[in-house]
UniProtKB/TrEMBL annotation:
<protein>
    <submittedName>
        <fullName>MOT14 protein</fullName>
    </submittedName>
</protein>
<dbReference type="GO" id="GO:0016020">
    <property type="term" value="C:membrane"/>
</dbReference>
<dbReference type="GO" id="GO:0008028">
    <property type="term" value="F:monocarboxylic acid transmembrane transporter activity"/>
</dbReference>
<feature type="transmembrane region" description="Helical">
    <location>
        <begin position="126"/>
        <end position="148"/>
    </location>
</feature>
<feature type="transmembrane region" description="Helical">
    <location>
        <begin position="321"/>
        <end position="341"/>
    </location>
</feature>
<feature type="transmembrane region" description="Helical">
    <location>
        <begin position="102"/>
        <end position="120"/>
    </location>
</feature>
<feature type="transmembrane region" description="Helical">
    <location>
        <begin position="446"/>
        <end position="466"/>
    </location>
</feature>
<feature type="transmembrane region" description="Helical">
    <location>
        <begin position="361"/>
        <end position="379"/>
    </location>
</feature>
<feature type="transmembrane region" description="Helical">
    <location>
        <begin position="411"/>
        <end position="434"/>
    </location>
</feature>
<keyword id="KW-1133">Transmembrane helix</keyword>
<feature type="transmembrane region" description="Helical">
    <location>
        <begin position="33"/>
        <end position="55"/>
    </location>
</feature>
<feature type="domain" description="Major facilitator superfamily (MFS) profile">
    <location>
        <begin position="37"/>
        <end position="502"/>
    </location>
</feature>
<dbReference type="Pfam" id="PF07690">
    <property type="entry name" value="MFS_1"/>
</dbReference>
<dbReference type="InterPro" id="IPR036259">
    <property type="entry name" value="MFS_trans_sf"/>
</dbReference>
<keyword id="KW-0812">Transmembrane</keyword>
<feature type="transmembrane region" description="Helical">
    <location>
        <begin position="160"/>
        <end position="180"/>
    </location>
</feature>
<dbReference type="InterPro" id="IPR011701">
    <property type="entry name" value="MFS"/>
</dbReference>
Length: 515
């Protein structure tokens, strides 16, 4: 078996022929099977991101079971969250070679294995390997394809589609928190993890639903997208021009690579044709050789696209706004993760457990998070609204809430701030849209892999850092203040770089006009 071009989901064809014919809208773009992709991505977010948002329940069980410090125990949750995102660039390579469907199915098996093996943990360090690394890598192999496939299937409703699919995080956090609490109470945390591992096998079903678009369907999407005035008006032209000024990413190396690949397959076909009169054994050998050759060509194409995106002359890192986006991602995600991991402990410290048991604060974040993603997605799809501006406003609201949360010591105050955190963090649904506007659909997998890798680094060090600060000060206040200030630094990078780029573009236009 080998991965075909259709399975990889990238277009290696010539678009010139398509441009000469009228383009009919593809029923599977913005409709048809595209909504099954949204359903698949929605379930992935429930089972992966929702479960990770509910790890505060298991974190308390691990503290009681292993009697380790809060900082060390928090590393289990952080490793799982962090590795899920950090492996993004490498998962991008898997997607380029094997396609989203195969990658997601393998990831579902790994994730389930990590949960099941963790049920037999004898210490925290065992959990680092089984839950942190194994389940984390499996989660990453399912999460990135789920996001990329939605981006491939939608053109005019991207923000809404991503918003609907990522609401699974909020639903999952609410459902999984209740489920894990029930399972831990009734069966103990070890059996709870075993059951959760069985449930996670449904990720393989989600992966099977990720039917790849054919090259023809992708070409039609690109052509329709190029003809859309609305998309051009909403695109971040100042950043995409940076990429275009260097040429299409890896275009020339791809053409040379494709010519070499066709030569290899042509020679194999010639040998097969000449050897038809041979014995059955030799024909079997030729078929095997042909299959291996086709697999080699697929791997070479996938690796060439992945390599050119990161290290080529026109790599993603030549886009300065995209680099600023990466710096923002390094600081942003921990500010969202820290409340989920440590809120149960904060509630216990403020002696608010009775109210929290009736309606947990993490569930408030999760529920409002659902509405935040959908509403922000709908607003961003309006013709008169810039997705970039909505993204920035949501970030400013979230960082204000993070800095304000330590000042609230009543349940009502914490509930209001948590609701605002849930709504403003709905900007997560806009991240793939902003990324696609920066680099284009073709390089979305590699570019978004870099962004979630930066988010993973933030998630990896955020909760242990907060636990370490608590061990020193016996308060969580400074953890939120420092996380909020670092988050603000990332937002400033997002604001400054586009302004500098616009000024440079204006200066260049002025010079050209004078000449």
């Amino acid at each position: 078996m080998y991965a075909s071009r259709e399975d990889i989901g990238y277009d290696f064809g010539d678009d010139s022929k398509v441009g000469s014919k009228p383009i009919k809208p593809n029923p599977n773009i913005d409709g048809g099977w595209a909504w099954m992709i949204v359903l698949s991505s929605f379930l992935v977010h429930i089972l992966i991101m929702g479960s990770q948002m509910a790890l505060g329940v298991l974190n308390m069980e691990w503290l009681e079971e292993f009697n380790q410090s809060r900082g060390l125990t928090a590393w289990v949750s952080s490793l799982s969250m962090g590795i899920t995102l950090i492996v993004g660039p490498f998962i991008g390579l898997f997607i380029s070679m094997c396609g989203c469907r195969t990658t997601a199915i393998i990831g579902g098996i790994l994730n389930a294995l990590g949960w099941i093996l963790s049920a037999y943990a004898s210490n925290v360090h065992y959990l680092f390997l089984t839950f942190g690394v194994t389940a984390g890598i499996g989660s990453g192999m399912v999460y990135l394809p789920a996001v990329v496939m939605v981006g491939q299937y939608f053109q005019n409703r991207r923000a809404l589609a991503q918003g609907l699919s990522t609401t699974g995080t909020g639903f999952g956090a609410f459902l999984m928190t209740a489920l894990l609490k029930y399972l831990c109470t009734e069966f103990g945390w070890r059996n709870a993890m075993f059951i959760q591992g069985a449930i996670s096998l449904n990720l393989c079903v989600c992966g099977a639903l990720m039917r790849p678009l054919s090259p023809k369907e992708l070409r039609e999407k690109y052509m329709v997208g190029n003809d859309s005035e609305e998309n051009r008006a909403k695109a971040l032209s100042h950043s995409t021009d940076t990429i275009k000024s260097n040429g299409v990413l890896g275009e020339e190396p791809e053409k040379k690579e494709e010519a070499a690949n066709e030569e290899v397959l042509g020679s194999v076909q010639h040998i097969e044709t000449g050897g038809k009169s041979g014995s059955g054994r030799s024909m079997y050998g030729l078929r095997l050789f042909k299959t291996v050759s086709q697999l080699t060509v697929t791997v070479r194409k996938g690796f060439a696209l992945w390599y050119s995106s990161y290290f080529g002359a026109a790599s993603l890192f030549t886009n300065r706004v995209f680099v600023a986006f990466i710096i923002w991602a390094l600081f942003a995600y921990s500010s969202f993760v820290i409340p989920f991991i440590h809120l149960p402990e904060i509630v216990k410290q403020y002696k608010l457990s009775r109210q929290d048991n009736v309606f947990p604060l993490t569930s408030i974040i999760a529920i409002v998070h659902i509405f935040g993603k959908v509403i922000l997605g709908i607003i961003s799809d309006l013709p008169c609204i810039s997705t970039w501006n909505v993204f920035l406003m949501a970030n400013f609201t979230l960082v204000t809430c993070i800095l304000t949360l330590p000042l609230m010591q009543t349940y009502i105050g914490l509930a209001v701030v948590c609701a605002l955190i849930g709504f403003s963090s709905g900007y997560f649904s806009l991240m793939p849209v902003v990324t696609e506007d920066l680099v284009g659909t073709k390089h979305l997998a590699n570019a978004y892999g870099i962004i979630i890798c930066a988010n993973g680094i933030s998630a990896l060090f955020g909760p242990p850092f907060a636990g370490w600060i608590y061990d020193i000060t016996q308060k969580y206040d400074f953890s939120f203040y420092i996380a909020g200030l670092l988050y603000m630094v990332g937002i400033i990078f997002l604001l400054i770089q586009p302004c500098i780029q616009k000024k440079q573009s204006r200066d260049k236009s002025t010079e050209e006009a004078q000449v």
